């Protein structure tokens, strides 16, 4: 796949037809006396699907100029039925940045959510062409779709750290590794030694980074990393108590409220017996619930910084300009997370229940 913005000429070459024929198929009309067979039409449609070509009618009306519209595509539902939801703060930051840049934001929602997830390949490719570039958010992204956007040189930025071939994928992420390591330092300074990590061992980037930060922090302090898989909340709470942990780290998506409820039902008090640090804000906090200690993710800043980066990528796009402009210097931007004091962290009194091994 050529690394340039796909044009009608590219579609015509793949389909083995003239560029005029591609235009006739796209417009679903042909001049008098011109007949396009069903087979030829299907070849053009297949080429459009394979390349992800978008006619971009808004840009055509502006004779190839920029639309000053930037898109936002989320792989999960943007507006939840209850609560503010995961994306709220990101969208606030994006809106503020859009005001500063003087651009409009288009939220792509036409792709249906199937099994909790959207895909660009479900009617999304053609829509992207309406915007000059797009922000992508989500925990269940399709790596093949991201690679396609890179290969076709469509300007986009992912909100959240993501790996890619030769590091070409632009993103603005949160530094979970350093933030998690810092929580170990906070606990050790308060006398904790038996510190566990509780949660699902997924392969998503935030989970991988949190686990890396936990392992690194424990190793630097000469402590043994201990993991408790989250399956049944009650069984997990029982294992936490049985293991004799004095502190645990929990990711916000791993039901922290329910978990602490079950721990306290077993006679272990938080934070006097067990400190609990949350590795990010709770996804669905309880009204009047616990004030969690741990760290917060700079979601508003991530949204704003991502839109600024996207605007620079669009400006550097050579497909609509006669001269090459320099690429932005930082395609990968990592933002620091902020420690939160909260009320679920306390000093450890006395010795651990068990001797810490090396």
TrEMBL record:
Domain of life: Bacteria
Keyword Signal: no
PROSITE patterns, A to Z: HTH_LACI_2
Pfam family, one: Peripla_BP_3
Domain named HTH lacI-type: residues: 6-64
Keyword terms, alphabetized: DNA-binding, Repressor, Transcription, Transcription regulation
Keyword Cytoplasm: no
Matches recorded under PANTHER family: HTH-TYPE TRANSCRIPTIONAL REPRESSOR PURR-RELATED, LACI-RELATED TRANSCRIPTIONAL REPRESSOR
Name listed for the protein in its UniProt record: LacI family transcriptional regulator
Source organism per UniProt: Luteimicrobium album
